Amino acid sequence: MSRVGTTERPLRVAVVGAGPAGFYAAAAFLEQTEVAIEVDMLDRLPTPYGLVRGGVAPDRPKMKSVTRLYEKSAEHPNFSFFGNVELGRDVSVGDLLVCYDQVLYAIGNEADRRMGIPGEHLTGCTPAAVFVGWYNGHPDYRSARVDLSCRRVAVVGNGNVALDVARILARSPEELRVTDIAEHALSALCDSRVEEIVVLGRRGPLQASFTPAELRELTELRAARVQISAEELALDETSRAQHDRARPRDPRRQNVELLTKIARSTPPRARRTIRLRFLVSPLELLGDERGSVRAIRLEHNRLVEQRDGSLGAVGTGQVEDLDAGWVLVSIGRRGRSTPGLPFDEQLGVVANIDGRVVDLETRAIRPNQYCAGWARSGPRGLIATSKVASAEVVARMLADAARGSVMEADRGGRAALESLLRDKGVRYVTFEDWKVIDRVEIQRGLARGAPRSKLVAIPEMLDLVEMKRRGW
Ligand SMILES: Cc1cc2nc3c(=O)[nH]c(=O)nc-3n(C[C@H](O)[C@H](O)[C@H](O)COP(=O)(O)OP(=O)(O)OC[C@H]3O[C@@H](n4cnc5c(N)ncnc54)[C@H](O)[C@@H]3O)c2cc1C
């Protein structure tokens, strides 16, 4: 290996994106001892932690405690945080490649998948990411239009995020108050008139992608009961055989068993009902004279074996209109194209081979550029999943550097980035600055017995940081 990687000239790495993938990569860099390294992490928000802060449901405090580990990396002397710096807006790919030896993009999947059906433009059809961002106080969505005046909400999708949004809609004000839910969302949800939340799955109960723990949690809600029709729960022959073959701990088998138990029970009356529906696909959203959603047209499905042995949903022609004043679409995420980064439109990820960024057309490796997390793989896997995946990419980056892929050019790293940001007038936030925001949020949360009450506007965060810097 060249001089790069020694204490005199550490390997200088920029990690773009302060979510789990970015932080696990930073930890892998900082924990290894082969190469002297400096890691600078950039995020477009002044706050770190990506979807742990802006996606994971507020009633999941244990899940969020993973940030304590990330904090450890952030406190490492060879780590710096540059919040409120957006790749493609404040800095370009070219800028980063001038300042750093290697760049790792861990920018997640920030766009939604659409259903592509008529009526999706109607008021009252909202991507789940918007609702999730709104209740989690993500600055992008703090002013989202969320109207909770209708009686019935339909949630399209059958994954954990669909259950998250159903659960948050069903929780009582007392349950929500002690979470870190954004103040605006708490107050709107306290006045919610929603009585029924219908979760719509395209395939059958055995194919649902939510996990048993999430399903079980629905049955433990204080102010809501869960209902499932025995007819939709009945397994077709192939699903039955797959179910019987599955190991007892197989999550799909556990789901079916739990769903059967729920269908057979008679839960006490509750303020709200969560209805789990299967084998139905949205065909169209129907609007009223004001251009707002009034119903969702569904087609009933049956399951048909595909070439790969999986079961796919095929419409039976039987159609039903389900009245609903609000439709939340939770059918997955995809990445957003970023200027200067090759973007695979089909997969919705940064174009890559095993985490090495490649040219879209030639598939040739773009030297010194890598990607990790959902930006690399799409929206698959839990927070913990990105630990191993990020470590793998870091191992490749270090191996490439050891093979001499990093030129000995005098890249300025941190000092060069700081000077670039100053020249461009970008108000960046350091990790110390974030800790100021963090402390204020925790203090604000005390009043309602919550772990924190988030600041949701970027100018408010930056003003707070500025005041602290000036010693006010
Ligand atoms: C609604 C929801 C709930 C979830 N709940 C759970 C759960 O309970 N448990 C669990 O284990 N997993 C959960 N997950 C999955 C988990 O959040 C992901 O596995 C994980 O966050 C992916 O990490 P990431 O770092 O790839 O992306 P992200 O967490 O999305 O981080 C990406 C970061 O990149 C930043 N960024 C984006 N673009 C730019 C740019 N141009 N310039 C600079 N910065 C940029 C973003 O601000 C963000 O901080 C949930 C996911 C969702 C969507």
Description:
Strands 3-2-1-4-20-19-18 form a seven-stranded mixed sheet, with helices on both faces. It has a six-stranded parallel sheet with strand order 6-14-7-8-10-9. A three-stranded antiparallel sheet has the order 11-12-13, with no helix packed on it. The longest helix is centred in the C-terminal third of the chain and has 18 residues, at 385-402. Strand 18 (352-353) and strand 19 (356-358) form a beta hairpin. The chain has two domains: 11-110 and 334-429, NAD(P)-binding Rossmann-like Domain (Rossmann fold), CATH 3.40.50; 114-331, 3-Layer(bba) Sandwich (FAD/NAD(P)-binding domain), CATH 3.50.50.60. Helices cover 35% and strands 22% of the residues. The protein has helices at residues 20-31, 50-54, 61-64, 67-74, 93-99, 128-135, 160-170, 173-177, 183-190, 212-218, 230-233, 237-245, 251-264, 374-377, 385-402, 413-424, 431-446, 458-469, and strands at residues 11-16, 37-43, 79-83, 102-105, 111-112, 125-127, 152-156, 196-200, 224-228, 272-277, 280-287, 293-305, 311-323, 326-329, 333-334, 343-344, 349-350, 352-353, 356-358, 365-371. Bound molecules: flavin-adenine dinucleotide.
